[in-house]
Amino acid sequence: MSAQAGTAIIGGGIVGLCVALGLAARGHEVLVLDGRDGDMRASQGNFGLVWLQGKGAGYAPYARWSFQAVQAWPDFAKRLSGLVDVDLALCQQGGYEFFTDAAEYEAFGHDLHRQANALDDRLSFELLNHADLAARLPGIGQRVVGASFCPLDGHVNPLRLHFALRQACLASGVRITCGASVVSVRPAGAGFALLDETGRQTRASRVVLCAGLGAAHLGPQLGFRAPIRAQRGELMITERVADRLPFLSSTIRQVDEGGFQIGGTKAETDCDTETTTTMVGLAQHAVAVWPRLADLRVLRSWAALRVMTPDGYPIYQRSADHPGAFLVTCHSGVTLAPLHATRLAEWIDGDPAAPDLEAFDERRFALS
């Protein structure tokens, strides 16, 4: 069996579907080759944050890219709702970073000032001591020494976002092939030949590699270094609660269905998705921040794998060896979704109005 495509996108997660939607909106024929249901999918295990504070404090291009993304989210959500009837549960009413260690709180405050400088002081944030927090959030834990607050931060339901993107792609004429885990991709004639594990072949004029951790294997076949590694994050979900949590943080959020989602761990791993005893630390931190959580039952927990580059920033790369091949990878697919579905498609097309993304070229690792 074989298929033909103008642009083939390898990977049907949030990143791949956003790119597909953007290219379809520009009039391209797009085929998404998605893997198996059992694949390690960051799109189905993430925290769902639309988050700005702290991002790019040490790398101005990423600070600016993230700033544009969070600003674009309201219009992006409206665009999706115009294509499909799915409530993304987007809420951008601001978010907190809580600290129980004074040195970490002070260091993060310095990072926010660096990020603000990178954004020409367009970043609005507050640094709040314990007394400030106690006045604003009665019930905050005594161990919290301080917090930062950014009014642009928010969250969405990531599973609904993934579903909405898939439906929006289909409504826009994108073809999606499931169970198509690509095992090889190579230049062929004026385009590329892709082979999946079932033996099915696809010929495409262009190929965009959005395969997450799978890009580490496929990337070198197209001349990319693709220095990607897995980082495990663990999450837990509590029972549903009628009372609404009066804040959103990067480690504690109340999902739209009512349960609390608690997360925030980082562990280097070789694709191990088993949960560990660090769950205890998650629970202890959550209770230290908001003691009222102590009596809630945990219903389920899981571990998922982040897609990480050496410096943590995205890679947007054109293949120097094989024109028409692109690598797109990042670990902030939810936050960056509006730009991946618009400005990144312009960049792939070589549009003169496209953003300059040279700062995200993977050659920066060789230079450093």
From TrEMBL:
Entry keywords, A to Z: Oxidoreductase
Superkingdom of the organism of origin: Bacteria
Family matches, as InterPro entries: FAD-dep_OxRdtase, FAD/NAD-bd_sf
Limits of the FAD dependent oxidoreductase domain: 8-347
Gene Ontology annotations for the cellular component aspect, listed alphabetically: cytoplasm
GO MF term list: oxidoreductase activity
One Pfam family here: DAO
PANTHER family (UniProt xref): GLYCINE OXIDASE, SARCOSINE DEHYDROGENASE-RELATED
Protein name listed in UniProt: Glycine/D-amino acid oxidase-like deaminating enzyme
Species this protein is from: Gemmobacter caeni
Classification lineage: Bacteria, Pseudomonadati, Pseudomonadota, Alphaproteobacteria, Rhodobacterales
